[in-house]
Amino acid sequence: MSSERFSRPADKRYLSLSELYGGVRGRSDRSRTRTVESAAIRVEASREAPDRLTLALPGADAPVAPTHWSFGQLASLIGAPASYLRQLPAPLAGINLQHGLLTHRAEQVKTLEVEDGRVELRAVTGPDYGRIYDHELVDAVRRVAGNGTGDTRWKVPGVLDWSTGIYNPRVDITRDTTTLYASDRDVFLFLVDDLNPIEAGRLPDGSPDLFFRGFYCWNSEVGAETLGIASFYLRAVCQNRNLWGVEDFEEITIRHSKYAAARFAHQAAPALERFATSSPMPFVNGIRAARERIVARTDEDRTEFLRRNGFSKAETQQVIETVLAEEGRKPESVFDFVQGIPPWRGTSRTRTPASIWRPGQRSSLIGLPEIRIAGETQCRVSGFVLIRISSSSALRRGPQR
Questions:
Q1: Under 8 Å CB-to-CB from 137, ≥6 apart: which residues?
Q2: Do both 7 and 145 map to the same domain?
Q3: Is the pLDDT of residue 388 over 80?
Q4: Last residue of a domain, one of 115, 143, 176
Q5: pLDDT 10s digits, 283-342
Q6: How does pLDDT run across 179-202, given as a tens digit for each residue?
Q7: What's the CA angle centered on 254, arms 248 and 256, to 5 degrees?
Q8: What is the number of alpha carbons within 13 Å of residue 128 lying toward its C-beta?
Q9: Contact, 296 vs 305, CB < 8 A?
Q10: Any residues with CB less than 8 A from the CB of 291 and at least 6 apart, and which?
Q11: 210 and 94 belong to one structural domain
């Protein structure tokens, strides 16, 4: 999530779902698609304008100008290196593109054009590309989250104050704090239910261990990535929009294939509505069961438990030492052991583990069907840095005004 915040300029940040929907819907209304024979596309360039290249599409009233993204897609479709073509004068790049289009074996391409002062070519895909428009995803979120500003239980998240350790769920939504983004390539939304915390047991000092629900979703109507929806429970969101204490992470992704729109209507959108209205009790009961399930009381028990669940000797020692350092005692319950597994970190929407841990170790360690800890086999977390909070350092919540 932090990478989303830092990579979005101010004009790509929105203060409400209504504002976001208006932006992406207006863009869609000015767009049109067509499927054309690739050999019928004419590349136009001249020596007088060595930096300008346009395409004449069959049935189009005027030439269209490819965007940086669609130029790369077009080059990829014909098997040409886009980075190299961009370095060539337009006439020379046009000759290469024209040759590729004339010999393109797939024969047909699907285009997405938008009129915004001039006609731009936003996307070039295969003829079976199943486009889900960004406004369709935003509209599905609006049905469960309203405006995303607190008019329903779902809202832009609050902020963790590092100086006090207090998470304040009530902050003004500004261009700096918003988590609603859209660009010419994608849309991304992150909302939470942080005004209705869920107690999932007690901390060693007797205070409640509080979580709240959250979800984020993304889409690209120009083929930059899949459509996806991820749901989870978490303890806090900091000012940089990193997530703390993420648990029970689940995800749905839909590739933009031929029947993508039908899958979105019948699978993804209903799943979002189910999560938005679901009971947190399975999550609470799972955490309680993991805390109550004592699996080791001696050092031999601890080593045997971890080695039996696929951890190497070095990994086993690291888990035990981590729990001892952060909790002040050696692990005994399943929940204790899971707290010793390092967090997964990511700087893009495709994550890699922060250290030596292999996918699936946390889930196999728990061994309970109703418990899943964030980031096992699902590797897309949209740039979130998932950081586990041990019970000894759990965050306090600010006043509920």
A1: 187, 189, 217, 218, 219, 227, 264
A2: yes
A3: no
A4: 115
A5: 888 888 888 899 999 999 999 999 988 888 998 999 999 889 878 889 999 888 887 876
A6: 999 999 999 999 999 999 988 887
A7: 160
A8: 5
A9: yes
A10: 201, 333, 334, 335
A11: no
The answer on 92 and 205 residing in a single domain is no
106 and 233 housed in the same domain: no
Instruction: Based on the fold, state whether residues 266 and 232 are members of the same structural domain.
Output: yes
354 inside domain: yes
Range of the domain at 373: 2-20+132-299+302-397
Q: What share of the chain is helix, strand, coil (3-state, %, to 5)?
A: 35, 25, 40
Shared-domain flag, residues 242 and 199: yes
Identify whether residues 315 and 234 lie together within a single domain.
Answer: yes
Q: Which of 84, 115, 146 is the last residue of a domain?
A: 115
Using one digit for the tens of pLDDT, what is the confidence trace for 140-152?
999 999 999 999 9
List, in sequence order, every residue forming a beta bridge with 212; answer none if it has no partner.
234
Contacts of 295 (CB under 8 A, 6+ apart): 301, 305, 332, 333, 334, 337
Pairing of strands 65-66, 119-125: parallel
d(CA 267, CA 57): 35
| Pair (229, 252) in one structural domain | yes
Radius of gyration for the chain, computed over Cα atoms and rounded to the nearest angstrom: 25
C-alpha–C-alpha distance, residues 67 and 82, integer Å? 12
- C-alpha 395/C-alpha 387 separation (Å) is 13
> pTM for the full model?
0.78
The position carrying tokens 């109550």 is 292
Count of alpha carbons within 13 Å of 353, Cβ hemisphere only? 15
Counting residues of the chain whose pLDDT is more than 70, the rounded percentage is 84
The structural domain count of the chain equals 2
Please report whether residue 54 resides in a domain.
Answer: yes
